[in-house]
Specification:
heterodimer, A: 462 residues, alpha/beta, Rossmann fold, 2 domains, 6-stranded parallel β-sheet, 10 strands, 10% strand, globular, B: 248 residues, 4-stranded parallel β-sheet, 13 helices, 13% strand, 4Fe-4S ferredoxin (chain A), NagB/RpiA_transferase-like (chain A)
Amino acid sequence: MTELYTASGSKVHAHKADIFCRDETRVDWHSKALWALREKRDRAAGSLPEWEQLRLLGSQLKLHTLSHLAQYLEQFEQQCLSNGIKVHWASDAQQHNEIVHGILAKHKVKKLVKSKSMLTEECHMNPYLERHGIEVVDTDLGERIIQLANMPPSHIVVPAIHMKKEEVGELFHQQLGTKAGESDPLYLTRAARAHLREKFLTADAAMTGVNMAIADQGAIVVCTNEGNADMGANLPKLQLHSMGIDKVVPDMDSVGVLLRTLARNATGQPITTYSSFYRGPQEGGEMHVIIVDNGRTEMMKDKILAESLKCIRCGGCLNTCPVYRRSGGYSYNYTIPGPIGIAVGAKHDDTNSIPWACTLCGSCTYVCPTMVPLDKIIAHHRRLKAEAKRLPYGKGGYMPLVGRFMANETLMNTSMSAARLALRVLPGSLLKPFSGAWGKYRELPVAPESSFASWYNKNRSR
Amino acid sequence: MKIALFIPCLVNQMMPEVAIATLTLLEKLGHQVIFPKGQTCCGQPMTNSGCFDEAKNTTLKLLNAFKGVDCDAIVCPAASCLVAAKENFHEFDGSQEAQEVISKLYELTEFLHDIAPIKAFARPVAAKISMQMSCHGIRMLNLATPTEQMGKQRFNKVEAVLGNIAGLEIVYPARIDECCGFGGTFAVDEGAVSAKMGKDKAQAHAATGAKYVVGFDPSCLLHLDGMIRRQKLPIETRHIAQIINDAL
């Protein structure tokens, strides 16, 4: 869209964030829009006296399922098969895309309508299918906006949150022929609806993501606000659903717990407009479920990282994250941004910088409806990067020096004494060029005459 | 009680007034206060960067300063350093002796609320203060219920301790417990975002019309002080120890 979002050059988080921060009015707008979601979440969560109990239950049921994963996945497969659903297993993104393409090619599908799925983003499925001559139409309004703008999602629940309505108006004017200069949300939504209706009616197949897969039912749950998953799944005869192995839950009671927290934590709604349960193909149709690993089993080997698989993708951690709100979804060098994006994406991050896009404030961990210990996971990623000698921002070079400096009392006392003197006697104009990122944005500290230890020796030591 | 002071390096070197106020107020409350020698850094700058090997020496040096010290409690006027010290002592030394040190560690507010509450204040402090509810104190030391957490059982130890000071008006900034953006090395690694967070927080405090931003975490206060003076906002930072000391 603008240079702001497609800035080339370094992919390092701090660099991307620095570019995002140059337009302060936009940062304020972005931060406020997302904070409004956090406030709505607080009101919705606060309206349930049992909220904290639901979080605990959500966490426990996900941990239970993850620790009996093979059992529940096999049960899910069996139940699906007996419901007439075809089940496929994909060990990675490539295999997932090949399976999907295989199914579509067999049915000579030219046009696929798709509702929200972060997994297909993770697998980069759209470009894969497009290379094979299949048109993929994202049907969630936000997803459609960014697809028309040729951008990836900047948020996992509100993917076009970074775009202002005027920008959407301009995009629709160019791509859908709406009136120039028109940015009324109702007008634009109606235009998108008419445009998508035509796509639904002419599609050869439909695809959705999966919010939950119910092991003992052989059914999947898809939550949308626009009914687009249902429009897709009910029109063409062929329906596909892709899910990560972490999406399985034991039974309907588990679904009951997670459905109560999912929408409340995401947008502050009591529940999404549509919570659709699919448990078999249409008459004369075919229903396929593709179960994808793509690194999840590997993640389960690390006890701390494994907890990130409890995530139900509500996006609540993004909305509360003070860094995400001020650096934008495109600064993370991974498909999923924000705290959960760092948790599941750090190992793919070739800049090795995203685990440091965090102050370890812990807000995300307290917001999370399944109690994923995000701050601990992020800190753990830092340790893993350090152990692999992949530290960003020159830390690999200076940290050993800091370690030695901090452990050496004499060295610390003499140099800090010199630093205090410099801060006291030298003019700011002389100090600023040497004060780095601290002095670029803040005034340097007012230095005291002496350390507390010296004061104590003079005033208290006997 | 016999109290050993744990004064983190930042406070020792750059904010001695916070340590002096802590020492003085504890003495005024009738405690016997000592300052064990050999304290350096808790290792947080290194461990928060994932560099545990680099943190080991300084952490153990700090731990050794407290091992075998005859005291009832070890009190620290910096929540974040206290949390890091607890975690890092545990990480690098599993001995019984280390565990004894860890079990005596208290952040100042925590100590004045849970262990030795102040019976009465001697003097009023006529000021409106805006509370800086720093992250680690709230979300890791349970000094107050964080805003993300729901339910009726809410507490705020900071307000409970300061609330009895006559003349003191306690207010809170918008987005009460949103991080100020300091985050240790984050402040320099991610300068732009850190500064924007700090600017927003400083402005939120100033917008309350309070005279002081008061907090329990000196590092956040140092960062906010730099932001406040850069933007020439009509507010100053104070540590809770300074406010309490003025009231005793």
